[in-house]
């Protein structure tokens, strides 16, 4: 068992889940069923296995249901949560929770699964950077959307970056990185924060060969279930 680490993980769990269609109408994305388990438990399993035990949850859509589930998480985990009064965007949710944030923390999108050494990423966070994105070389359902040069992110475009890498939905930030955002806006998303940090040369890149999965659509939800089922069968020697 990996020794516990002290760093904080922030989970963005307030999304509306509109791309899930009927699946997301009465169940938040983080509680979608994946092989008989809530997705949140599945996604946090490799995170906790790498030693991270301190979590802050940014809640929104169907927050009471998520809050009730948080009470079932392991007792040794330290958890806090804050519910946004209206959809504020992925970066807006961080601004709303700024009083809960450590000087440095990890951000996880609440619909993304990746089996990697999350704790070790903190050891790779350059001290002169305000943020660090974890990118993958592996092929997946998302177009390569990030350009990198000399370990620094130089391009970010959701519509694709030719020859680029793919954002896994895992980012390390220093709390001071949020100072670059304009306060008081109705909605602010992470891509705006990334572009602001890129403009300062302050957004580093870490690269993995592991594939990541998101459950944002029914097809992608099924892709994760198929992947996990294959891994379980392999471990059982089937």
From TrEMBL:
Transmembrane segments: none
Protein name: Sugar phosphate nucleotidyltransferase
Recorded superkingdom: Bacteria
Gene3D superfamilies for this protein: Spore Coat Polysaccharide Biosynthesis Protein SpsA, Chain A
Organism the protein comes from: Nocardiopsis tropica
Domain spans labelled Nucleotidyl transferase: 9-128
């Amino acid at each position: 068992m990996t020794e516990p680490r002290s760093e904080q993980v922030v989970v963005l769990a307030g999304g509306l889940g509109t791309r899930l269609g009927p699946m997301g109408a009465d169940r938040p994305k983080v509680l979608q069923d994946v092989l008989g388990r809530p997705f949140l438990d599945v996604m946090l399993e490799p995170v906790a296995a790498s030693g991270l035990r301190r979590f802050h949850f940014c809640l929104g859509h169907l927050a009471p249901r998520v809050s009730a589930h948080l009470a079932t998480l392991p007792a040794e985990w330290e958890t806090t949560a804050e519910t946004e009064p209206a959809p504020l965007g992925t970066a807006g949710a961080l601004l709303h929770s700024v009083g809960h944030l450590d000087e440095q923390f990890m951000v996880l999108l609440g619909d993304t699964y990746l089996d990697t050494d999350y704790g070790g990423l903190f050891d790779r966070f350059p001290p002169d950077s305000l943020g660090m994105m974890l990118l993958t070389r592996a092929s997946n359902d998302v177009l390569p959307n990030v350009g990198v040069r000399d370990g620094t992110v130089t391009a970010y475009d959701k519509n694709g970056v030719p020859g680029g890498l793919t954002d896994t939905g895992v980012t390390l930030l220093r709390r001071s990185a949020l100072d670059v955002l304009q306060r008081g806006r109705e909605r602010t998303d992470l891509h705006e924060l990334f572009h602001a940090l890129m403009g300062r040369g302050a957004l580093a890149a870490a690269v993995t060969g592991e594939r990541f999965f998101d459950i944002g659509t029914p097809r992608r939800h099924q892709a994760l279930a198929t992947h996990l089922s294959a891994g379980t069968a392999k471990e059982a020697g089937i």
